[in-house]
Design brief:
By secondary structure, the protein is α+β, with helices and mostly antiparallel strands. Helix content is about 25%, strand content about 35%. It has a seven-stranded mixed beta sheet, sandwiched between helices. The longest helix is centred in the N-terminal third of the chain and has 15 residues. The chain is globular, with a radius of gyration of 15 Å.
Amino acid sequence: MTELRVVAAEDSAKSVFDNLIQFYLYDMAAQSEFPLNAQGRYDYDMLERFWQHPYLFLLEGKIAGFALVIRDCPIRPRSPCWFMAEFCVLRPYQRQGIGSSAVRAILKQHTGAWEIGWLETNAPASRFWPAVTPAKDRADQSFMFDTQAWASLAFTA
């Protein structure tokens, strides 16, 4: 794999993330229901809330994915806590080690307590996250949030 760069995004990149989120939700629609709106786009209204620590994954200068990290845990009362609000490796770059490299880089930037959660219907996430997060002192949990079954990992980086 060519060297992956995980770079903090500037506010000027919000429109790039708005576009990338469409690909992310398209992939997620295979796991959970995400209907298109009348304009043929997926509705996503969380970008402003999750725009705390945005990252782009760059491979040979090309965008390979992104992450949105926030400093609170929206799915369970746990504070202080880092939370991976969104994480995406674009389809052409999947299964090349980019995701695990990006996770390691992000965890180095934000040490301390972490929580990563995903819908239990998301089979790829159920395989990915336990494989790329520290196993020592990790708490794996399942719970209901917003009427949906979630899985989560709580750990310290």
